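[Meeting: bench + compute handoff]

Bench side (C.D.) handed over the final construct sequence. Compute side (W.E.) agreed to return the predicted structure before the next meeting so the bench team could plan truncations. Sequence as handed over:
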Amino acid sequence: MSYTFGPKSLKVRSTLCPELVEIVDKVILVYDVSLIEGHRPEEIQTAAFNSGASRVQWPHSDHNVFPSNAVDVWPFLHEYSGVRIYESLSGHPKQVARLARKLKCSKSKVHQIMVEEYQKMIGVFMGVGAALGYKLQSGSDWDSDLDRSDQKFIDLPHIAFKGTL
């Protein structure tokens, strides 16, 4: 099954470096995602840092160059266990509570489902990137050592282009 980007994702896509554009264009053919943020100007980076959503100040994020070397992506879940979901997984507390009611499960189970979907999505990105000859970094494995347990800051939506293999 092939998917397409919506208007917001296309706007974010227009801020990405050519390599990330090539990657997201391949990913969307096999896995549905929403592009949330690409280039991040100084005022937004400063706000992200001040809120704790980012660990780096302007201009040291891969989001701060134009075109952007990083993109934040949410997996789009169509259904789970036969229940129609049809939304991007942001992890916002209101979304978690709503999905727990809809799926008739605990919020903890919803978090588990979301982490599994993010892991699938990250795997698709890493596979597509490698197939194209690109090195990517995930916000779930900043040091790219394939050990996510040694991370102090987890940013599941974050994917960054780090060069060629």
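W.E. noted at the follow-up: The longest strand covers residues 70-80. C.D. will use this when planning the next construct.
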